[in-house]
Each structure stands twice: as C-alpha cells, then as structure tokens.
C-alpha cells in the first residue's frame, strides 16, 4: 500500500507501508491491504505507520483520510511530531 501524509505546508510522509492506524473521529482504526474505500475525518492523535517490523509514529492535528485502491492519503491540518 502507498501512504501519503500531506499538511498545508509540506509533504510529511510518502512511501510503501504494510499497515496504518489513524485517529478517526469515531475512534482509531487500522488500514490494511485491500481495505474498503473510505473517507473519514480525523482527530488530533497518532498515525502509526508500520512497514514490516518497523513502526513510526506521526502525531497530527486533525484532518481527513481517504483510502482507495491501496492508496492512503492523509490530509493533516498539521504535524505536532514526526
């Protein structure tokens, strides 16, 4: 799967991943390969990016996520920590 995290001022992350957990407004959820198409609002919180056995945490300030055809796009209002 391809993950792209974009803020208004920069490209924060782009690359192939095996799983992503995002802070959905109705609760956190994980996105795996072949996930159903979805658009969801995001709260402030952790985006957990898994690539094999490696894990990276990016803390965002709200936004929107779109998942379609194994492409994940996170439009974040800002990045607190990456």
From TrEMBL:
Physiological role: Produces ATP from ADP in the presence of a proton gradient across the membrane.
Compartments in which it is found: Endomembrane system
All residue ranges annotated as the ATP synthase F1 complex delta/epsilon subunit N-terminal domain in the record: 1-77
Subunit comment: F-type ATPases have 2 components, CF(1) - the catalytic core - and CF(0) - the membrane proton channel. CF(1) has five subunits: alpha(3), beta(3), gamma(1), delta(1), epsilon(1). CF(0) has three main subunits: a, b and c.
Pfam family, one: ATP-synt_DE_N
Source species, domain of life: Bacteria
Organism: Sphingobacterium olei
Membrane topology type: Peripheral membrane protein
Originating gene: atpC
GO molecular function terms attached to this record: proton-transporting ATP synthase activity, rotational mechanism
Family stated for the protein in its record: Belongs to the ATPase epsilon chain family.
Cross-referenced CDD domains: F1-ATPase_delta
Matches recorded under NCBIfam families: ATP_synt_epsi
Coiled coil regions in record: none
Official protein name in the record: ATP synthase F1 subunit epsilon
Keywords: ATP synthesis, CF(1), Ion transport, Membrane, Transport
Main location: membrane
GO cellular component term of the entry, any: endomembrane system
């Amino acid at each position: 799967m391809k993950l792209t995290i974009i803020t208004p001022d920069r490209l924060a992350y782009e690359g192939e991943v095996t799983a992503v957990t995002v802070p959905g407004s109705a609760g956190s959820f994980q996105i795996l390969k072949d996930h159903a198409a979805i658009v969801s609002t995001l709260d402030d919180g952790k985006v957990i990016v898994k690539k094999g056995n490696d894990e990276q945490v990016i803390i965002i300030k709200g936004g929107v996520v779109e998942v379609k055809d194994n492409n994940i796009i996170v439009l974040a209002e800002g990045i607190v920590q990456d």
